């Protein structure tokens, strides 16, 4: 009785589909971290990428090895070369018993500006073949400040579905309750090392109580770093305002078409309109007023959010770069914030020893 | 070995006088990883070292990869094709890294190593042989580097002697950062920047404490005064910029204000973002 029931349950287990447990953290080996650091640092400020190899176990994604990609030229034949290189590396690594499964890729970034459409596209490419993949982002410019800036990212599932259907209109975004924070999910990283390595490293550790990274951390001169951050921020602001201007004809059209049925809501819309004017420059808005009137007619006839043939790029352009840009903006913003926090902290704590000795 | 004609056995040490090697921890990691993953019947791992030779003669070992090999009592077979394939692949990424030698795990240098060394010396003029003792036979993990020197008796080649050269572990600052996480077998999460700052401050305070105690001891006569240390300490203290406290306060406050300004700006932009998003996606509801 017991045997048959266990047999049945086994069959049941085998028959039911495997439930995909959510990815809880990424376990990286120290070797991989060192390789990534070395590769990104050697080629900075150029951006480099590489492949991650490892194992997908339950709710943990183990990354046990990696290899770098050569810098790709803009050439057609190099594409095939790149694929050959990859196959060759994986075959060679297989011979020395290294895990052969691709689990993602890594790339370097400068000051956190990695949120581009290419990243999303690469994610989608990988996702087709591998069930679970991560992207590890390393920022070599922050290591001058004494921080190990390593992050593991994954596209959120809801965003992936949306991207597949390629439907980025404001309506759909609202339906799914998806805002720009939901695009990427950051996964916590754990580091593991074999016992042999940790024995060696403990042995090789230098005896000085203070290391170079301490000197780096206590540095006062953060000005160049902050300046670069602000430059990035300003650029992103410009991009964002451009995107918004592209979106304004649609907004205006919506304002105009939807005022007619409910007159009570007109005043609110006027407020919205005023706010939008405040946010962007008056002049560019005046330019948009002209053509949008004619577009209005066409759109009114076709429905609420149609895609008119004479301007097919407009609705598409509005949503697709927009969430990404917002994100990149956000991240640069965050970095500026973090950086400020660090600096505030440094200033406060640095003043104490001075008072002590003096 | 007595000989009729009086030739002298030459130990030429001059050529190795200024030879030293610097190894990056990545290489050690690679070697250990390959050792852990070696096939069951192999007792040691052999591989190639990549790097470059610096202008002052030191060999900078930056990367490595394992090469499958088979060993029996008196012969060694190395998979040369594999070695070349991986070399080509590595050079696609980093053309500046060339072969600088080879490594093997295990403590001593055996006769078979000489054969392999011979093979590598055909590729590189003076290969460096690195041994990494993974068995911890001396009670510690010894890593040694050797260069082979030919022992010549007159015109005849007698043997090649493996001479040890000084070896340094060289770490780039980013690697130093991660050193704490590289030491232990597992770390639950990567340290954030504030935690790192905390550690640094603790170390600094410990150093200052040590100096204080030392100075106190010397003043009270408990420890003999060492003039050079005393001079060093006074130099350090004198290196602090001589600012009056109000001037120093002003300096600190000014920079603090600048940073607060930046903080304010970034908060404004975040608010702007939130507003922009609401406008763009919520326009239809209104």
Characterization of the model:
Chain A: This is Eukaryotic translation initiation factor 3 subunit H. Chain A: Residues 294-318 are annotated as: Disordered. Chain A: GO terms for molecular function: metallopeptidase activity; translation initiation factor activity. Chain A: Residues 294-303 have a biased composition (Basic and acidic residues). With 358 residues, chain A is of the alpha/beta class. Chain A has helices spanning 2-15, 30-43, 76-95, 117-129, 157-165, 170-176, 195-204, 212-217, 223-259, 266-279, 282-302, 313-317, 321-357; strands at 25-29, 49-57, 60-68, 101-108, 134-138, 150-155, 184-187, 189-192. Chain A has 13 helices and 8 strands. In chain A, strand 2 (49-57) and strand 3 (60-68) form a beta hairpin. In chain A, helix 9 runs antiparallel to helix 13 (321-357). Chain A starts with a helix and ends with a helix. Mean pLDDT of chain A is 65; it is low at 259-268 and 281-322. Chain B is extended and about 80 Å long. The chains are: A alpha/beta (358), B alpha/beta (286). Chains A and B meet through helix 2, helix 3, helix 6, strand 8 and helix 7 of A and helix 1, strand 4, helix 2, helix 4 and helix 5 of B. Strand 8 of chain A pairs antiparallel with strand 12 (186-187) of chain B.
Summarize the structure.
By secondary structure, chain A is of the alpha/beta class. Chain A is about 60% helix and about 15% strand. Chain A has helices at about 1-15, 30-45, 75-95, 115-130, 155-165, 170-175, 195-205, 210-215, 225-260, 265-280, 280-300, 315, 320-355, and strands at about 25-30, 50-55, 60-70, 100-110, 135-140, 150-155, 185, 190.
SSE topology:
The complex is a heterodimer of chains A (358) and B (286).
Chain A: H1 2-15, E1 25-29, H2 30-43, E2 49-57, E3 60-68, H3 76-95, E4 101-108, H4 117-129, E5 134-138, E6 150-155, H5 157-165, H6 170-176, E7 184-187, E8 189-192, H7 195-204, H8 212-217, H9 223-259, H10 266-279, H11 282-302, H12 313-317, H13 321-357
Parallel strand pairs in A: 1-3, 1-8, 4-5
Antiparallel strand pairs in A: 2-3, 2-4, 5-6, 6-7
Helix pairs in contact in A: 9-10, 9-11, 9-13
Chain B: E1 9-10, E2 21-23, H1 25-36, E3 46-53, E4 59-67, E5 69-71, E6 76-78, H2 80-93, E7 98-105, H3 111-123, E8 128-132, E9 143-153, E10 156-165, E11 167-169, H4 173-177, H5 179-183, E12 186-187, H6 193-220, H7 227-239, H8 245-282
Parallel strand pairs in B: 2-4, 2-11, 7-8
Antiparallel strand pairs in B: 1-9, 3-4, 3-7, 5-6, 8-9, 9-10
